[in-house]
Amino acid sequence: MPTNSCFIFFTIISFFVITSMVCRVRAVGVNWGTLASHPLPPPKVVSLLKSNNINKVKLIDADSNVLQALSGSNIGVTVGIPNSMLRGLNSSKKAADSWVHDNVTRYFLNGGSGVRIEYVAVGDEPFLQCYGEQFHPFVIGAVTNIHSALARAKLDSKVKVVVPFSFDNFQSESNLPSKAYFRPDLNKTMIELLSFLNKHESPFFVSISPFLEHLQNKNISLDFALFKETAHIRNDNHRAYKNSFDLSYDTVVTALSGAGFPNMDVIMAKIGWPTDGAVNATSYLAETFMKGLMNHLHSNLGTPLKPRHPLTETYLFSLLDEDQRSIASGNYERHWGIFTFDGQAKYQVDLGQGPSKSLVNAQNVEYLSSKWCVVNNNEIMP
Length: 382
Ligand SMILES: *[C@@H]1O[C@H](CO)[C@@H](O)[C@H](O)[C@H]1NC(C)=O
Ligand SMILES: *[C@@H]1O[C@H](CO)[C@@H](O)[C@H](O)[C@H]1NC(C)=O
Ligand SMILES: *[C@@H]1O[C@H](CO)[C@@H](O)[C@H](O)[C@H]1NC(C)=O
Ligand SMILES: *[C@@H]1O[C@H](CO)[C@@H](O)[C@H](O)[C@H]1NC(C)=O
Ligand SMILES: *[C@@H]1O[C@H](CO)[C@@H](O)[C@H](O)[C@H]1NC(C)=O
Prior knowledge:
The chain is an alpha/beta fold and 382 residues long. Helix content is 38%, strand content 14%. The protein has a single domain, classed as Glycosidases (TIM Barrel, Alpha-Beta Barrel). The longest helix is centred in the N-terminal third of the chain and has 25 residues, at 2-26. The structure holds 2-acetamido-2-deoxy-beta-D-glucopyranose (5 copies). One 2-acetamido-2-deoxy-beta-D-glucopyranose binds at residues 181-182, 187, 190-191, 258-259.
């Protein structure tokens, strides 16, 4: 009965297409940083994530209190290796083995109550231009050693090694996506690194920032950065760009294609809008940006270069304000949070809790600052 089996086949295919679309739409995560003088206790942050239906989180390190709090939560986790550890991890397989043992295996294999670690991010944007070449020589070695350590722990099929790239790793003539390529000083490293990542089915983690593009490039208007329908369209050959996100995304795709990897999965590792510390950094504009971004992700439209290719995973920057981040590039660095340092929503956006529901704030936050003052002061005992 060919018609019938055809129908069944079609039904099965549509089921997979629909479920995979649903899964992809749901994959919105957040960056959870802890550079705060009064960090919210990790169990409170995990409650905050769960009550807002956020099911993926990216960390900059592998803090044991944070990983313990994430145990049993079923939240997908990216753990990070700081740039300062890359040298040691390049030169020593043993160091890589202990890093993986202490920071992945120990939590991962903790029965049903373990941490669902999905990625190990090697370095924190190690190719950022302002670092010069200090980390370049160690990245490939560290990536290789961490991957081998995961393989020895039999975790390499579940936990993927990634490297977070920053947007200044790319260049393009007149800012046109079709003319994009990797920064020439990275050229040699990139081919080797991308081959390795591709061979092991790792996605490409990259940060893009329409906010910074708007701040630094007068061709990127505020409306264009904010996904406004009224924004002036930018043309690149026969492709029409309606927003800064697509322009940046296709810049990344073109550079990857030029290097020979046109089909690598691209994951937005950091994207957000600060609420203070610069002109046009306000809660109102951050809300407009986030809502525009969410609509874009949910539309499944893809970008001009990859139409109808759903944007797989996106990690918003950031969950909470961090008042100890470096302000070398601007005061806005301490105001990226969707929530304040103590977990109160600064504006409204649907992170997964549902379009008609408000964000849920952190509950029963204890403010310990006065107690700490007493403890720190030798003369006054509590
Ligand atoms: C990276 O590690 C390898 C293997 O131990 C070593 O030969 C190489 O010199 C290291 N690279 C640097 C720049 O130290
Ligand atoms: C595990 O990660 C923590 C936090 O990033 C780090 O301090 C520690 O050195 C790591 N363990 C090993 C064995 O490298
Ligand atoms: C701005 O746009 C113009 C016209 O398209 C272009 O010639 C110029 O290079 C662009 N400048 C930057 C910094 O993107
Ligand atoms: C802020 O946005 C306004 C309104 O579009 C714009 O005119 C102005 O140039 C922006 N300021 C900066 C510093 O980018
Ligand atoms: C390296 O540079 C050459 C020439 O500029 C270019 O064709 C090639 O695509 C570049 N490789 C990467 C990985 O960008």
